Amino acid sequence: MKSTTITLAAAGSAALLLLTGCSGAGGGTTADGEFAPNGDVRMIVPFSAGGGSDTSGRAIAAGLEADTGVNISVENREGGSGAVGYSHFLAQNGKDNYLLAAETALLALPLTQDVQFSYESFTPIMKLGDDFTLLVVPADSDYDTCVDVVDDAKDNRVVAAVSGATSLDEIVFTLVEDDQDVEFDRVPFESGSEVLASLLGGKVDIASLNPSEVLGQIESGDLKALCAFADERYEFEALADIPTAIEQGIDVSFAQFRGFIAPGEISDDAKEYWIAAGEAFAETEAYDTYIADNLLQPNAVYGDEFVEYLAGNTSDLEKVFAE
User: Fold this and answer.
1) Per the confidence metrics, is the pTM higher than 0.85?
2) pLDDT 10s digits, 1-44
3) Which residue, 54, 142, 151, 319, is most buried by CB atoms nearer than 10 A?
4) Residue 7's domain spans which residues?
């Protein structure tokens, strides 16, 4: 387990957060009577360091810390395709000084594994944006399009790396299999960084990774992107020439969301505090930089709207995992 503390709090902001003598993990109040978390805050990342979830968690923690003046440490609790981190977070029920960097595993795990939680167990705070994936292969691969991969899989063994049984890449490959009536062999890993290493090392044939995880390797010429599993081509210059899978006759588009949640059963004041902090973060240059650097679509929603999004996304995933 790795733990890193982000220290961006401004002294002026910190001075405003004069907490009362409340004990435990419950919130206190500032000098003017407003809610504030009692002490430092911990951001749980349910995957290992170096992947897209880790990048998201650290960016969110830094942005919230800069706005609130509260120290926020980032703790990686990887394992079980995210189940270890989410289960640990479930145990923090009612604690308003815990947050978790959430993504599609929040919805996929309850549908595929015997876990004790669903998105309804927690308090959804903010969805920052949507993260699609690219189908990538080594630069010397014989594949030049996603159709090449599908055609080869009809007669031969094509090995795909996936970052867990409930990950976005697993979902995307399942959708491709269903749409094209093919089957890929899977090799599971714990994170996108491990998937990338296996692909570069020639241990697998294909991978479906977020643009932020592979842009450097694409630009360096170590990898090539065959298609994007998105509704439309990216507008980012570095990705604008990559066709969508839909353009190539593969009717698959699915995004992983990036956002953060709080434990279940926190107070309404705590929920509104974190939503307000998220809204403030979304108006900053730091948020814009995170979205641009990680090549996301900035579709921010908060609170109840985030809950509605999660409910709809769960319905879509139920169809995938029921097949």
Assistant:
1) no
2) 433 333 333 333 333 333 333 334 556 665 456 898 988 999 99
3) 54
4) 2-131+256-322
